[in-house]
Specification:
By secondary structure, the chain is of the alpha/beta class. It contains 12 helices and 7 strands. The structure holds guanosine-5'-triphosphate (GTP). Guanosine-5'-triphosphate (GTP) binds next to helix 1.
Length: 262
Amino acid sequence: AASSSADVKIPKSPVVILMIGMAGSGKSTLMHRMVVRLSKHKKVYTVNLDPAVRNLAYPVNIDIRDSVNYKEVMKHFGLGPNGAIMTSLNLFATKFDQVLNILNKRAENLDVVLIDTPGQIEVFNWSASGQIICDALAVSYPTIVCYVVDTARCVKPVTFMSNMLYACSILYKTKLPFIVSFNKIDVISHDFLKEWMEDFEKLGDALSRETSYVASLSKSMSLAMEEFYRNLRSVGVSAVTGAGGEDFEKAIQEACTEFQES
Ligand code: GTP
């Protein structure tokens, strides 16, 4: 039979999800939870970009630790922990074409690529290597940022504000579809954060309990953040219990529609 256009095989791209968040927010635990959950109906691949992490519960397919020895980098360059993470990422970024080659070879058989990043987020986000890695991924694949937040630590409104300012700056820097995952909802529900994001007055009330300088600064900043919150896709999850997993998957699907629109 003559081949029709229906026979032409269009390679489908896996969705790449970059897990970004402060140290201890639960990125690695959430990675594990999502690997377990998504693997039931999707082909999942994992990349670890944290050179200093000790144990990871999920199976790692591509691991920065296989090519860069963080302890040796510290010794060899006489660096502290953050400098060594940055230098390790720089070294790895020079080989990132190899990572892309591996992904490209497997792309056809993959649905999701989950990427774990170092908790010292500034090291990832503000370094040239972080940018190179993000750009290289985003050019090749639909790439989404999942910003992980420790909900319990956001009880203090000023901590919440500074975490959201960080999230906002990452959104503007990467310009990628964005999901905020309020993690650890087994400890505390994220309902109060939804309220704060929906109602500027409620955040104002919470802030008024802070010292006057911080409160007035945060209040004026939260006004500026209204626009960011209005368009923000957020979900509550627990990496430990698995609560919110369905919402997380839905948010990913929604975020993917941004690629179709653009
Ligand atoms: P870094 O590697 O330092 O960047 O940390 P991370 O963001 O990868 O966090 P990690 O997954 O190591 O979790 C930090 C701590 O929070 C661990 O003790 C986890 O067990 C705990 N944790 C993570 N997710 C949850 C959660 O949903 N609920 C509870 N109660 N604890 C959690």
